[in-house]
Amino acid sequence: xxxxxxANRYPRPGERIAPVTLREFLLQPIPEQFRGRRGADVRFCDxxxxxxxxxxxxxxxxxxxLVVARLGTHQVRKALxxxxxxxxxRGIRLGDVQLENRTRRCLxxxxxxxxxxxxxxxxxxxxMGVRSFGPRCLVDLLVALESAVSASQTDGVGExxxxxxxxxxxxxxxxLPGAKLxxxxxxxxxxxxxxxxxxxxTALDLAGRLMARRRDSIDPSAMAEQVRQLCDRIERMAGxxxxxxxxxxxGSTPYQRNRQILIGYYGWEDGQQRTLTDIGKRFGITRExxxxxxAKLTKRHADAGEILAPVMDRVLALIDKRLPxxxxxxxxxLVAQRMTSVGMSLPTVATAAKLLGRRLPFRIAKIHGAKxxxxxxxxxxxxxxxxxxxxxxxxxxxxxxxxxxQLASExxxxxxxxxxxxxxxxxxxxxxxxxxxxxxxxxxPVARHGLPKAIDKILAVAGEVSIARMRTxxxxxxxxxxxxxxxxxxxxxCRQMGDVRVQGKRVISDPPRDWRKVLTGVERxxxxxxTEHGPVMERGAMEDLCVREGMNRFSFHAFVSWSPxxxxxxxxxxxxxxxxxxxxxxxxxxxxxxxxxxxxRVLDDHGxxxxxxxxxxxxLSKAASTYAVITVPAALKDLVHGRFELFSREGNxxxxxxxxxxxxxxxxxxxxxxxARIDDRVVLTLDLQAGTAVVAIGEEVEEVLGDVTxxxxxxxxxxxxxxx
Length: 724
What we know:
Blueprint: H1 2-8, H2 32-35, H3 51-54, H4 57-70, H5 74-79, H6 87-90, H7 101-109, H8 124-128, H9 135-152, H10 164-174, H11 190-196, H12 203-211, H13 220-237, H14 242-250, H15 256-266, H16 276-283, H17 287-298, H18 310-322, E1 325-326, H19 327-336, H20 346-355, E2 363-367, E3 370-374, H21 381-396, E4 399-400, H22 401-412, H23 418-424, E5 431-435, E6 440-443, H24 451-462, E7 464-466, H25 467-474, H26 487-496, E8 500-503, E9 506-509, H27 515-518, H28 521-533, E10 536-538, H29 539-548, H30 553-562, E11 566-570, E12 573-576, H31 583-595, E13 603-608, E14 614-619, H32 622-627, E15 629-631, E16 642-647, E17 653-660, E18 663-665, H33 668-674, E19 681-687, E20 692-697, H34 700-707, H35 715-723
Parallel strand pairs: 16-20
Antiparallel strand pairs: 1-3, 2-3, 4-6, 5-6, 7-9, 8-9, 10-12, 11-12, 13-14, 14-19, 15-18, 16-17, 17-18, 19-20
Helix pairs in contact: 10-12, 10-13, 11-13, 15-16, 15-17, 16-17, 21-22, 22-23
């Protein structure tokens, strides 16, 4: 009889020592004296059926006592007060399992020994409240019931019946994108992972272990519910705002003050970061203590890049897709898409991304007081684009996106796309599009020269002009632009000017401008002469009048060539822009010019010296004396080309003579110093081998020509002798 009672006593050979149902209370390692070689790294919850093979019977008995002691504490009793028995245990008849006599008598007093589902109406706490039913009885009951369940899970042919509910929950968990990053190291997931499977490192690992299991736990329905809770928690992460996600990750602390310090410092309460000093003043502690608290909370995660943060990943993906883009536009979109409710700024996002170990796809470039989000390799390019745009508009009055991209690409020796330019220039003060599609724009406060001044001059002289005529007038200045802006762009520019009125395709000065106040210097004198003697004149006559009033000839010809207020009506016939002139008047002026033309050619003579040098004799015309551009004989233009060092007859260097395509230039400075006039004689002697040229003027010419021993000959003869 005594032997039978001993066989029923807990612990019973072949059964577990620690009940699986109460695993979470038995996670501590067993005492050191039991570890040895076989007990290394063993916890109380690991004391299963194999314990009898790993330890001696005496050690098993001692370990069972420690298990009972741990489950008999007040904290455990309180935690089990409302806890139900696992569903798999509730359907086992108590008469079919081995129990200690004391355990069986206590249950019999409650009328549970003959019930088909004896535990369905009882919680663990209620059973422990039965008189004389202590923690040992509870362990005895749970171990006996769990052993019966393990035996019943295998049918007669050895096949295991696994819970479909648990398998389905595990499959759902495996399909979640964030399962890999839900780890045991994170406070958000550690409790659930530990409760389900202490060995699982991640939720994905847990799902794999569950789907590969060979036998169910004691309560697969309860475990399935825990897996579903883990799934819900991971899925819920995607519905959080960014600040909520960050607070969940880093703000897990029992100290509410430390939590508020962290949130305030990193800007997760209103989207704006604070300084250590600001937060220190708010909470009455030093800035160093603030730094320590924040560092402690944010550096608990050793592998920050493996933290599950789906909202941050979505935020960074959205930002990367929008780049380059003004920061305030992206911040507004984050709010609109409910990724943040506090309007988190991009610098705050950047700081948080670094805390989470995420690669930052953007940098913030400051443009004219605004913030532009760009790719990291564009951080230096964006400010340069802004500077180039301002300079281009300053000199030309307007610019194109294509032109700015070209200038930036040349500066950085890499391709700077138009997308970056289009994102940058709207942040500059006074920006407005003139034609968005073709990329023309202006910066109102920056424009000082170029187009605005040209329009002022044109309207000051003409008062009213068609847009086509205005564009033609601007096209005269090849130094300002190779091709003037399109008519559509010019019209829009005029519309945006404050003192200009546009009617259809005509531009009107409103109020009228006074050319005497708008024009200065040479242009003002030109308009004055044409107003008094014109408004249309032959170029030579106009030049004589202007020179008589003190104008330099070179300045005269330069301004007549490119000034937008001067219009050419025929060969060497010029007048004020907007003047209505008949064909008969133009023809008469051309005829007068031809009648007054000099009877001789500018290239007077040419030949070769005895030593094979080329000499060229000229008689200066008005144009030649002004522009100092002369011709080279057709027979010699293939030989006389390139640059020649220019010397006076005394051997003094005076510049460089350039020749190309039968023309030569570079005598201007010399002629001005000599006071050259119309009909003066000039002789050039060129040494083709040495690349030098000697120039003579006035009385020196006769002496030079007297030294020339070779008389003029045929052009073919000159070519043969020069190539000698």
